[in-house]
Amino acid sequence: MVKHQPLQVYEKQVFVSFVTGIYGCRWKRYQRSQDDSSRWECTWFIILCSSFLLLLFWAYFWVVAQNDFNEFNWLVYNRSGEWRDETIPILASTTVGFSYISFLLILAIFHISLGQQLNLYWVHKIGVLATLLSTISGLVSVDDIWRDEWDIMLVSLQSTAPFLHIGALAMVTALSWLVAGYVIRSQRSILKVFKTPLTFSCPCIIDRHNLKPRPDVIGRRGAPMLAPENTLVSFNRALQHGVSSLEADITISLDGVPFLMRDRTLRRTTDVSKVFPARQFDDASFFSWTEIRSLNAGQWFLESDPYWTVKTLTAKDQSRIGNQTVCSLVEMLRLAARANSSALLNICRPPPEHPRYRSWFMDTLWAVQKAGISQKRVTWTPDSDRGRVRGLQQTTNEKLSMKEIRQRGITSLTLHYSKASHKDIQEYLANNVSVTVYPVNEPWLYSILWCSGVPSVSSDAPQVLRKVPYPIWLMSQNAYNFIWITSDLVSLAIVIGIFGFQKWRMSGIQNYNPEQIMLSAVARRSSRDINIMKEKLILSELNNGLSSTEELSLYPENSYARHSHGGLSN
Fold this sequence. Notes:
This is Glycerophosphodiester phosphodiesterase domain containing 5a. The chain is an alpha/beta fold. Helix content is about 50%, strand content about 10%. The chain has helices at about 15-25, 40-65, 70-80, 85-115, 120-145, 150-185, 230-240, 270-275, 290-295, 300-305, 315-320, 330-340, 360-370, 400-410, 420-430, 445-450, 460-465, 475-510, 515-525, 550-555, 555-570; strands at about 1-5, 10, 215-220, 245-250, 260, 340-350, 380, 395, 410-415, 435-440, 455-460, 530-535, 535-540. The strands form 3 sheets. Strands 3, 4, 5, 6, 7, 8, 9, 10 and 11 form a 9-stranded mixed beta sheet that branches. The longest helix is centred in the N-terminal third of the chain and has 36 residues, at about 150-185.
């Protein structure tokens, strides 16, 4: 007599094979397991989550730091001596690493939801470690050369906090389907958390009638994204894009002529390495005006294309830029006077061994008078020699208390955006102290400062800010409260509904007999949709003395038929 075990039928699990195959190289059914993951694999899951959070922070930092990419490249240049766009490889590697880690994390979450054992493939473990170590080294490097830039994270939250709150709610709601399946299947409890609004002060949460006038835009070194910085063509471009004032960096030449130069040397923005190769590392102030005037100050812009804008220039514009020379302070002020504009001067005092060390003030004042511009339209830093300044406006880059401002008689501040909080700006304006914030190159930062009431900003990208006629977003406090309360309630209702549905579905599955599920699957599906993984026959010795293998060889077709019909009739 032949005894048969009921036919075991398995449906194809393409999605499970895809998830376990890519994550742990477990493509076959027999390679997978629904046992609890080992502590070692749980540790790797924690490392994966930590890598994702660190990369999320790193990616967000570079997104908001786009406002200061020019500053970053300039800092790197001062260290390396070579001018190149260092942000390109950073952004490319960040994008690849974040995409890779995010994909692995999604696969791990699916493992947990489907009840599969975590088993990260060794190649992925190497990749996760390499990505984590690269990100940590990047963080250390940025902290070394660009530590002040971390402040932009808090500044950006003034604009993005409401949207991050809604995004976090959407993510939690989406994950609840996967988490619910795991929690109910493992019969574990989960802590329910009701999200509250992020506690950040957002200046743009105000009533429309309280919005201050649009801040004036100052062309910082002209329009350096469209033409070489601190050149006449750059200032002309800035005026064409509606700036109210021009800002320039002033250096005093060996013979006392104030000229426009940001760097300590002439290497980056001129061809001094070709004209005076032996002096290319000398301080720019130790060149005479005749020597400085002989240098080309535009060809470097066409060759390096620091902002990827050269291709947008016409042949005429490129020819004009290629023939630019170093601009003097008198030329810049005359241009501002003709355009009925004002000027903000950042003066770099000569070193002590310079022959004009004691007369730099008079040299600058002489240039202002020679240019014929009204002294009331000229503001300069540093805030020194106030007793000698008559008619000229002076500002300071220091963040001072109101007591210090009154003692020093200051009426204007020029502050970095990281030092100008919404509260400080309101205090300064209430005491009739004008505030200019720099550098402001992105619409989101411009919108924040607009809502804060800042009267003017200094920008490297006036062509970008010109396209911002209104803050990016603006809403009243009541509207904001309604949005976050409604989103919280809707998210909570959806999560509760998902958990209820998953519990009902799991309880329905558990009420079925496994044999009934198998038989119903056989009855519903055609034979070509079923993959027969195993058929085991248990044979017993008959009285006629035939072995089990002999009986099978003699009656293979009848045996299979009896088994199939018998299995379906049970």
